[in-house]
Amino acid sequence: MLTYIIRRILILIPMLFGISFLVYLGLEFTPGDAVSHMIPPDLANQVSAEKLEAIRESLGLNKSFLHRYWSWLSHAVRGDFGHSISGGVSISKIVLDRLPATLELSAAALIISTILGIMLGTYSALHKGTYTDSGLTAVGMLGVSIPEFFFGLVAILIFALKLGWLPVGGRLMPGMESWIDHLPNIILPALVLSLMMTAGVMRYSRSSMLDALNKEFVKTARAKGMPEWRVNFLHGFRVALTPVVVIIGFRLPTLIGGSVIIEEVFQWPGVGAEFIQAVRGQDYPLVMMIALFSVFAMLMASLIVDVLTAWIDPRVRLGEE
Amino acid sequence: MVSKALNKKFDRIKAREEYGIEPKRVRSRALRKLLSNRLAVVGLIIFSIITLASIFAPLLTQWDPGKINLRAMLQPPSAEHWFGTDKTGRDVFARVLYGGRVSILVGLGSALLSAIVGVSIGLYAGYRGGWFDTVTLRISELFMAFPQIILVLMLVSIVGQSLFNLIIIFVVSGWGAMYRLARARMLSLREEEYVQALQSFGLSTARICYKHVLPNTLGPIMVNITLTTAMFILAEAGLSFLGLGVPLSIPTWGNILNVAQDIRVLQNNWWMWLPVGAIISLFVLSVNFIGDGLRDSADPNLQG
After folding, report:
1. A9 domain-assigned
2. Domains of chain B, with CATH numbers?
3. Whether the predicted pLDDT of A321 surpasses 50
4. Which residue of A83, A90, B179, B235 has the lowest C-beta tally within 10 Å?
């Protein structure tokens, strides 16, 4: 098991190198360099060209591309991710400030979609061929076809503007710091964000459950006269659940991608909303670093999923040796 | 009971055959399976209606999508303006029709281009193996490690906004999946006897890849193109809604929805965004129906 984990981590390292190189290459193609961002445009004319050159020399900007990449990378590994152009705040501080909101929203959506998806999918499989089953399948199709942000807009219109049950958006009001206080604020974005994932989990757990129910040992249990609910839940459900756990890990890109737009729609002050602000304001270093963090998060998630799968199913880790 | 119903059905078919009125059947087995899938047919009909309505937009509406008419601002839907008018008096129905042209072009065009790029590299790499295969595989892994929207937004910030750029960016973010698919198919087809026969005849690599193996990979690739089209149409709508996709001067479905970021429009002028959103959902739904139908009809395991 340990060797498996170590091997999986070793595979990640060249991957991270490649990604960081790609991101730095992108940074290289953006207009301007660190010096032109440091000096306000109206002052740029007063600074002599020699002086600009001297600053560039002292910052090491005249060195070769690979050299600069290496120094950028070694800073990044030590936790120094540079500064945002607008405001000059350090990027790690911006991201750390925004991260709790994003994690809170993602976790809520992940929990809702997992519970709802597995429940509906299992129900669908146990009632295969009925109107409820086809109805749920159709709703699932609709769930992956409606643009998430449009669904969010409709939800805001109905529940916030017309009925007035829930706030339009935002997270923390002054004087309301505990999570109980902003529970009403998180309900709408979390439900909207979980829509697409619920549809996916539902579809997958339905087919996984159907698969399990067709296995020989389920038939044996039934033949022995076990009560139907015991067959379904102790034999079918438990076996069906394993691949579903894996698919939840693979939903992470959907979650990260969806949260970017949903955070913007609901004015949720997370990393996604910050990313969009950075793209709008052409704050290149911030854009690149957030992109890098998101890739890192995804690689970590896939690592965890792989390890979990190997832990649940020994065939995976033994198969590779 | 089942067999009784089945017997009845066969009797009916037999009777019709005897009278010589059995309808002519569609030749291609895959097409026949697709047409017998009710949802796929519904999808095809909705898809065709929306696409044709966009193409023949000038015949369906007399309004110019870009023409500002300050005397007809913010009118609710009426017999004259079917979907009402927006803040500058432009006809929303005309904008939806003309916007469909660009949105469908971006979705379908990017999906087709991704397929062309991904499949041609994937087939070649899968067949040749060696360093070309290793390098392209690693590159595709790098691109696929990004969450799609993050990669797209990052590239938008580097190259800037335009219709052409957006299509290129979509291709950059979408070719990897097609490449993977084509390469995997090639790896198994490479071992088939007919490919080895072609090799022994001395056919060139390109001929074997693109003339003889390509047709055998088209089924799953077609399915993937459909699903990718749906994904790109959603992506375009999302990006343009944020104001980061197609430039606002060009009407697209996403750009029409852009006004809904204003909460007053959201509350008071539902006709400016609700019908467009419904049409995007309907269109993507129809594409997904077609994709599902194609998957069932292209899968040899399910072929009857």
Report:
1. no
2. 44-69+76-302 (1.10.3720.10)
3. no
4. A90
Tell me which of A16, A19, A207, A279 to substitute to probe the interface with B (most B C-beta atoms closer than 10 Å): A279
List, in order, residues 6 or more apart from B57 with CB less than 8 Å away: B94, B97, B98, B100, B101
Q: Do B237 and A141 touch (CB under 8 A)?
A: no
Question: pLDDT digit string (tens) for A81-131?
Answer: 777 776 667 777 888 878 888 888 888 888 888 888 888 888 888 888 788
User: Dihedral, CA atoms, A92, A94, A97, A98, nearest 10 degrees?
Assistant: -110
DSSP track, A242-308: HHHHHHHHHTHHHHHHHHHHHHHHTT--SHHHHHHHHHHTT-HHHHHHHHHHHHHHHHHHHHHHHHH
Shortest distance, CA B212 to any CA of chain A (angstroms): 33
Residue A43, Ramachandran bin (φ over 0: left; ψ between -120 and 50: alpha; else beta): alpha
Cβ contact A150–B277 (<8 Å): yes
Q: What is the pTM of this model?
A: 0.83
Residue with tokens 């087919």: A207
> Is there a domain that residue A4 lies in?
no
Return the SS3 of B65: coil
B150·A153 Cβ contact <8 A: no
Label residue A66 left, alpha or beta by phi (over 0 means left) and psi (-120 to 50 means alpha): alpha
Please provide the DSSP assignment of B202-260 as one string. T--HHHIIIIIIHHHHHHHHHHHHHHHHHHHHHHHHHHHHTT-SS-TTS--HHHHHGGG
For residues A114 and A171, membership in a common domain is answered with: yes
Closest Cβ–Cβ partner in A22, A256, A278 for B142: A22
Of A5-9, A256-260, B118-122, the range with the highest mean pLDDT is: B118-122
Which residues, in sequence order, are CB contacts of A7 under 8 Å at separation 6+? Answer: A320
CB neighbours of B8 closer than 8 A, spacing ≥ 6?
none
Tell me how far apart the alpha carbons of residues A320 and B63 are, in angstroms, rounded to a whole number. Answer: 64
Contacts of A284 in chain B (CB under 8 A): 157-158
List the domain range (segments joined by +) for residue A277. 98-312
Instruction: End-to-end CA distance of chain A: give it in Å, rounded.
Output: 11
Same structural domain for residues A106 and A255?
A: yes
Cβ atoms < 10 Å from Cβ of A125: 23
- The verdict on A282 touching B (C-beta cutoff 8 Å) is yes
Mean of the pLDDT values across residues B148-170? 89
User: Max Cα separation, chain A?
Assistant: 91
Query: How far is it, in rounded angstroms, from Cα B135 to Cα B120?
Result: 15
Say yes or no for a CB contact (<8 Å) between A261 and B157. Answer: no
Is B266 at the interface with chain A, CB within 8 A? yes
Distance of alpha carbon B162 from alpha carbon B250, whole angstroms: 10
